[in-house]
Every structure is written in structure tokens, then in C-alpha cells.
């Protein structure tokens, strides 16, 4: 009964939520280098190390846990993905990045975050 209600609740979104969660998961968790960088960003922001959760198709109740974890890691995701933006796009998100860094990091740590980010090639993170 609960599963049917969850399925009905998710139906307006088709599979966009699952797809988004899967893309983020595979982009970071299936690349050892990206996983290491993601973990380092968590450490630099003084956050406990957490992994992303893989959504499992047709497990509608589990998607809530997956989305909750994404929400918990949103600040780390902002930092992680900022540095793979096209340089022409960075200015659009610089204020958001600075808000995240101001919330968690000292000046020295901001510098370390920027240094770490230079090890991420511009473009698709899943290529590493």
C-alpha cells in the first residue's frame, strides 16, 4: 500500500528524479579519482565523510533516502561541480560557491579547496 502511494507520488516526475540521482551517483562514486576529490572536499568543509546513494529502479521508498543524502551533500556538490564548469559559466555560480565556502572554510581552507579543484579537468567529471 505504501509503495503504491510512493509510486503515485513520483508519477508526475516520470523518472527524472531517479535519472538525476543516478547521474550524480555514477559521476562521482564510480570514478576513484572523483570519489577521492569529493571526499577531500567534505574534509575541507569539515563535514563527515558520506557517500552518495545509488537509486534502485522500482524501489520508490528508497528514492527518499537517496534525495535526503543528496540534500545533505548539496554544499559539497556545489564545490565539486563548480570546478568542472566551463570557464564562461563560472561567474554565474561564483556567489553560490562563496556562500558555501564562507559557511564552512577559513581563508587557508578556501585556498586549499581551490588548489584541490585544479586537479579536476574542466568538462565532464566522469572522464577521470
Describe the structure.
By secondary structure, the chain is mostly helical. The chain has one domain (2-127). Helix content is 64%, strand content 0%. The chain is built from 7 helices and no strands. The chain has helices at residues 2-10, 16-29, 32-44, 62-72, 74-82, 90-104, 107-117. α3 packs across α5 (74-82). The protein starts with a helix and ends in an 11-residue tail after the last helix. Residues 123-128 have low confidence and may be disordered.
Characterize the overall form: elongated
Kindly give the count of domains: 1
Structural class determined from secondary elements:
mainly alpha
- Give the termini separation: 43 Å
Number of strands: 0
Radius of gyration based on Cα positions: 16 Å
How many alpha or pi helices?
7
SSE diagram, text form:
Blueprint: H1 2-10, H2 16-29, H3 32-44, H4 62-72, H5 74-82, H6 90-104, H7 107-117
Helix pairs in contact: 3-5, 3-7, 5-6
Which properties best describe this structure?
disordered C terminus, 7 helices
Task: Briefly characterize the structure.
The chain has 128 residues and is mainly α.
Amino acid at each position: 500500500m505504501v509503495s503504491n502511494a510512493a509510486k503515485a507520488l513520483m508519477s508526475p516526475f516520470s523518472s527524472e528524479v531517479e535519472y538525476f540521482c543516478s547521474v550524480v551517483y555514477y559521476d562521482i562514486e564510480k570514478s576513484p579519482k572523483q570519489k577521492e576529490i569529493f571526499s577531500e572536499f567534505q574534509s575541507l568543509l569539515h563535514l563527515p565523510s558520506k557517500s552518495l546513494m545509488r537509486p534502485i529502479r522500482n524501489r520508490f521508498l528508497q528514492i527518499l533516502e537517496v534525495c535526503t543524502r543528496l540534500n545533505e551533500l548539496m554544499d559539497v556538490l556545489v564545490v565539486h561541480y563548480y570546478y568542472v564548469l566551463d570557464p564562461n559559466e563560472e561567474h554565474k555560480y561564483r556567489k553560490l560557491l562563496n556562500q558555501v565556502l564562507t559557511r564552512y572554510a577559513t581563508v587557508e581552507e578556501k585556498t586549499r579547496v581551490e588548489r584541490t579543484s585544479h586537479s579536476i579537468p574542466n568538462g565532464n567529471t566522469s572522464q577521470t
